[in-house]
Amino acid sequence: MKKSKQEIYKQQINWRKTNPDRVKESNKKYSKNHPEKIREKAEKYRKKHREQIKNYMKKWRSLNKIKKNKYSKEERYRTKIKVFTHYSGNPPKCLLCGFNDIRALVLDHVNNNGAEDRKKFKTPDCLLRYIKRSNYPKEFQILCANCNMIKEYIRRQKV
Ligand SMILES: [Zn+2]
């Protein structure tokens, strides 16, 4: 019985589906032996779908930007929790008054050399990463914003 064109086509598709490795291999061989044809085809495709490609790239970039931003935001938060927990326990709290809302907790320099570090590290995140990297140096403590301000106030009065 002779197979119809459609049947043969269907069979070929099926074969490609069940033998992905062989398809890959033969594609590889073809592109190696006919580099100019592949280039031509790609060029043609690019010309024909210029707008689509442009839109796709734009979408991809913005999607991945969101993903990247979201990821680094989470990563930053995780680092903050880790560092704060290391210095003040779980959950992180102020060394002086015990206040424990992380939104108003700050990393305080025991020796008051925060200005130097702020110059050295462009953002607070850089400092947090540095602390983690250098295995939590002893010169830091966790204070709440109030206690931190009071400490600073007393220090300035002394000077
Ligand atoms: Zn406090």
Overview of the structural elements:
This protein has helices at 5-18, 20-33, 35-48, 50-88, 114-120, 124-133, 145-158; strands at residues 105-109, 140-144. With 159 residues, the protein is mainly alpha-helical. It has a domain at 68-158. It has a two-stranded antiparallel sheet with strand order 1-2. Helix 4 crosses helix 6 (124-133). The termini are far apart. The model has no long low-confidence stretch (mean pLDDT 89). Bound molecules: zinc ion.
Write the layout of secondary structure elements.
Elements: H1 5-18, H2 20-33, H3 35-48, H4 50-88, E1 105-109, H5 114-120, H6 124-133, E2 140-144, H7 145-158
Antiparallel strand pairs: 1-2
- How many angstroms does the end-to-end distance come to? 103 Å
Regions with little confidence, pLDDT below 50 for 5+ residues: none
Kindly estimate the percentage of residues that lie in beta strands according to DSSP. 5-15%
The DSSP helix count reads: 7
Radius of gyration: 30 Å
In terms of structural class, how would the helical and strand content be classed? mainly alpha
According to DSSP, the number of beta strands is: 2
Bound molecules: zinc ion
The major beta sheet can be summarized as: 2 strands, antiparallel
Helix content: over 70%
Element pattern in H and E: HHHHEHHEH
**Shape summary:** elongated
Question: What average pLDDT do the residues reach?
Answer: 89
Describe the structure concisely:
This protein is mainly alpha-helical and 159 residues long.
